[in-house]
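User
Please review the sequence:
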Amino acid sequence: MDTKPFISAKDALKKEPISDVIALKDSMKYFDAEFFNDSKLREMEDGAKEFNVPAFRENRKLVATENGGLHNPSVLLFKSSWSSGSMTSETRSFEYPRASSVHRPTNDEDIAFMSVIELGELIRTKQITSRELTDIFLRRLKRYNPVLEAVITYTEDLAYKQAKEADDLLAQGKYLGPLHGIPYGLKDIIAVPHYKTTWGSRTFKNQVLDSEAYVYRRLKSAGAVLVAKLVTGSLAYDDIWFGGRTRNPWNIEEFSTGSSAGPAASTSAGMVPFAIGSETAGSIAYPAARCGVTALRPTFGTVARTDVMSISESLDKLGPFCRSAVDCAVVLDTIRGTDAGDPSSREVALGDPFHVDITKLTVGYLDDAEMEVVDVLSSKGVKLVPFKLNYTVESVQSILNITMDTDMLAHFDNWQREGHDDDYEAQDQWPVELRRARLIPAAQRARGKLIREIKDSFTVDAFVGNVTDWERVCLGNLVGMPVVVVPTGLKSIENPPKGGTKRRTTVTTGIYAPPDHDHIALALAMAYQSVTDHNKQRPPIDDLGPNDVIQR
């Protein structure tokens, strides 16, 4: 009796074409859906060919030929507010404190590290012009950028034009408020007409979007002066971009993290008085903490994102990097608001952070809170209690990644299809995540359960805790929760060079509040900073110490 040689299934598949049903059956394991029989798989195959694929292709032509998510926003909107009804109260401007007895310093270095409130008083009292301030900050940007790699585009011509307009208005007796004539920078995912908006990517490094982002329009109407488009990590990921990698002014041997790398580093180094960055999953919190600046990730929806590159429409937020919580409040008051180009934006009825009675607040502190903050707030009359957020959802981090990656893929579908992911600056970042995202069936129900549990667990007015804990970063962004990043000190770097160094590692904490209560977090941060000076320290860019050579 003849016997045929044994052929494994693997070898058989090599010799014979794989049927669509077999291929589909094999692929189901990547969707955790290995329960269909062959008959159902054949039905699914026919349905996909006849309906799904043609529909995908037609819809892609309609909304996915342009990258970046600038147009055709989703009609499925995330509402971060915990209120049961719609809040329709009138939005009122905050009542800012006026800096008293402010005099112009004799050297530019001291001017560069003044707060927005102080610089605004110098402008208002005509001790300095906007043109002079613009000169000072452009010089600093050009002086330190070769080391920090924090600037993508200088907007010099625009800056001098806007500075002249600010000075002319003041000469006519028209003062627009505390940002009148104040220079600033924008993360380079924010569109400004006639200037490149590169998204930090070599694929888009020559892209010009002749549209005005809502946040830019708001700042322009307040008289602020744009001096630079600042580094975003490539496609808003980390600190690597097509021109290099942004460094931390406090320790220029290490990098800034990202993706709001340029706004954090430039504000820290006194290259701008303030900057606007963005966060989807840590892009404000991480670089602000690393570079030792005060920053605010506001409640989701507080600031309209029209004409800003989008990663995830239910996670993206714009917020300020500043010298202090007072400055963050001033900038937030200017940029907050709704716009038709961002259906998720809304008029958030914030209280005035300058009129919060903090002695009536109960504030929790987590196990990883910086206790100096707890002690200072307690001394100011705040009731402090031990606190813990309780929730049963164990997949917080994966919910964040799934939400972010599937949305990002929808906004950069064409980019991936054209093979530009092969040219991406860091191959272990977006390329890997967006390939994986092709295999994700998106879902939001677990996110809803998490939000309900956090709302029920939030039994205090605010809480203090580590601001760079990844679980908390994911949780805060999924919930839409505001947090103020607060510098709380400095410590020695690891393995300092012989002979010593002035390079330092920054210590920070976060002050968190429920959605729509940014004013509470800001008020607490202002109270802490009113009796401490950690936020006023200057990084040692020019004076590292003896025998401290930076390896480039």
